Amino acid sequence: SVPLAFFGGIGRASHEGILAKGGNYLQALNRVDSVVFDKTGTLTKGTFKVTEVVPRNGFSKEDVLKFAAIAEVNSSHPIARSIAEAYGKPVDESMIKNYEEVSGTGIKARTDKGLILAGNDRMLHLENIEHGDCNINATVVHVALNRTYLGYITIADEPKDDSYKAIRSLKSLGVRKTVMLTGDNRYAAEFIAEKLGIDEYYAELLPQDKVAKLEELQRQKKKGSVVFVGDGINDAPVIARADIGVAMGALGSDAAVEAADIVLMNDNPYDLVKAIGIARRTNSIAW
Ligand code: ADP
Ligand code: MG
């Protein structure tokens, strides 16, 4: 049973924008084995900006951006929004005949101009389109038109201001391991993980791979709970599976917030550290 003091703890936490859906979750935060984070939107700002457009095969930068913008016009992914902003011109949506967004991969759009693909390495591999390997520390969107490679767009995201402090504080609170999971490429993942001092990271994961990886981390745990912190629609199944599922509340998806045990209303990963602090103080009152 949950000591009554934890209900008081819920009240104190809520003043900090930390919403616990039950005293038991706050109590469980007293013993954390590992904390697993989603990358984009959780540890990073998730506000993407196009940093470079690199044409290939005799195409122009304008071509690469234009066809990417057409393919992405119906997507609400932050990547799509950054491409629309860089292109800066309106796209005639009636050009799109058929459109498919493949989660963790990219976009396939049938248009008046032909089949446009805009996505990551995995997409080009699946579609058998030749392109050079680019090991860039950023999110990369490759663009192809009628199976001809046009080039790629690099998109940068940056860590949230408090992400580094959050990771360092979790370690000093005795958390055994910090982990980052992402659908993004391994170079972008390595860059962020090293910058933040994260113990382990796993990249190029599809949504179902994230669940499998979390279960593996749960099997490896020594004692205490495995916490997962995420923000996106894709994260909801992982949040649900974690011992303690945490969602970013302000920018996070409704599905993620619904699946969560704890919601961080300020979208700040450091608030998990605060929540553990409140849990420990509450615990010392409770016993
Ligand atoms: P994360 O796991 O980092 O939150 P997602 O699962 O949303 O990221 O996406 C994983 C990867 O899939 C992205 O890094 C990108 O390479 C590719 N991707 C997803 N959606 C799109 C899109 N609309 N356009 C291009 N690429 C996309
Ligand atoms: Mg995300």
UniProtKB/TrEMBL annotation:
It is found in: Cell membrane. Belongs to the cation transport ATPase (P-type) (TC 3.A.3) family. Type IB subfamily. This is Cd(2+)-exporting ATPase. The gene is cadA. The chain holds residues 361 to 647 of 698 of the full protein.
